[in-house]
Amino acid sequence: MFLSLRAEVEDALEGALSTLDFPTDDLGIEEPPEDVASVLASSVAFRLAGEAGAPPPQVAGQLADEIDADELTYVSAVQTQGPYLNFLPSDAYLADTLANATDGSYGSLPDREESVVVEHTSANPTGPVHVGRARNPIIGDAVANLLDFAGYDVDRHYYVNDAGRQMAVFTWAYETFDEDDLDEPPERDRIEYDLVRYYRKGNAYLENAPEAEVEAAEAEIESIMQGLEKGDDEAYERVSEVVDQVLGGMTECLARLPAEFDEFVKETRFMRNGATDDLVDRLTELDESVYEEDAWQLELEDHGIDKNLVFLRSDGTSLYATRDLAHHEWKFDNYDRAVTVLGEDHKLQAKQVRTTLELLGNETDQLRQVLYSYVNLPEGKMSTRRGTGVDLDDLLDEAIDRAREEVEDRLDDRIRDDELDDADIERIAHQVGIGAVRYDIVSKQPTKAITFEWERALDFEAQSAPYVQYVHARCCGILEEAGIDPETGMGDVETAVDADLLETEAERDLLETIARFPAVVDEAADDLEPHQIATYTREFADRFNGFYRECPVLADDVDPEVREARLALVAASKHAVANALSILGVAPPRSM
Q: pTM of the predicted model, to two decimals?
């Protein structure tokens, strides 16, 4: 309803401005402070004071006089507060919000008939996913969820680097060494933990072996790279045997978050189908193309980029950036929009790719890049190649263990009388533990570096995932006690619900917060900022807890009609918080 109310306010303001011969290009619409009893406000009078030759409060009064609230559905009154216009919600606004929010899909937006590919994670398949890169799948999955909920047709892609030197080294090492040559057993019983030992062994060998042996190894590595470049089936199959196994294990790890993909797009696709060769031909014809330091490069200084883009080595092999350009043109051919989630160390590459695509004649308005800083732990920096650091599996295991301890410690203080068996506790531990990791990471602005801290992430009392999840569990508990299935909301309640009975400030504040949810989804999707959803959930949880403290739902002395209205509000709250958490990829527990 917030979106409908905003549209009404925009139309009303434009009409009033036109009537008074004022420009309508900037309406100054904003959300007022919490202590103002309106849903929307406008500061347009500030802008018009000079043109009107009158102080802003007087201009605001003129505009208010031109708007007839009786002709509006969701605005009950237009009031001035100094230079501001305040738009107060009508009973219809609250009633329609309550009716719509009791639907399980509440907050989702209509189909936009626009396709979007979201590429995220795309970690090199050289071993287990480690914590430093965990922000990519968490943010990427949340961005994809957000766009999907906002009405876009979303495909989730993982771009697989199966053509670079790293994979040639990995393939050579896998074929060269035996189990007996490896220094340690795998850290986990999963394929990527097994095979990464070959990768580490190969890198150590290339650094420490006698020169003649290193030269022989490098020759074989080079032959693998050349074979891939030429589209040789044997070279592709050799590399794929390693890549596919490691990627399978990494996928199992990512599924724990969960982060799942519609397609794994391999670099070699664009080498084998001729797209990379075609791209190289076009790049060499550009005015910016030069051959320097034994490589073909693009000089991009005139386009504000100091570092050249190298796109072809002297031996005729392409680079990751070259194949990525072909990949992006493929995206443009198949999707209306393309979103890529990248670490901050790829910022220069992202600028080079966008500029080069434009030089090749592509429109890049449909390309959006979400850049993020890395997640740090007190242990410090991590390196897959050296085999040090903390793997994402380790973080998730510890999250579940810590959540389990917290849940067990709180069993005696639970208000609900439902019995939790071992399976229930384990389920809740997974939901809370993994939810805490995802929420803590996705709730921050991506460009800000963060250090993950257990005490903050798993704090049931602070504004963390458990704090919000507990609101959902509390909603479910109230509905179940009233004999209502939390999944169907008020579908089991036959009596009509009168939203006018929700008269207290706590009830109205909660209902107005619920009303804003679709608009928050809309804005967050436009900005590609799922942390806006996390911010909303914290505000929502505060509003619900205020309602819970002040407005008994099932007490014996509550009027039956008020009881039904408050139950509907609880059902609406349940759907709003569940859907918001689902966008973030955080499970909404039915009990805690």
A: 0.91
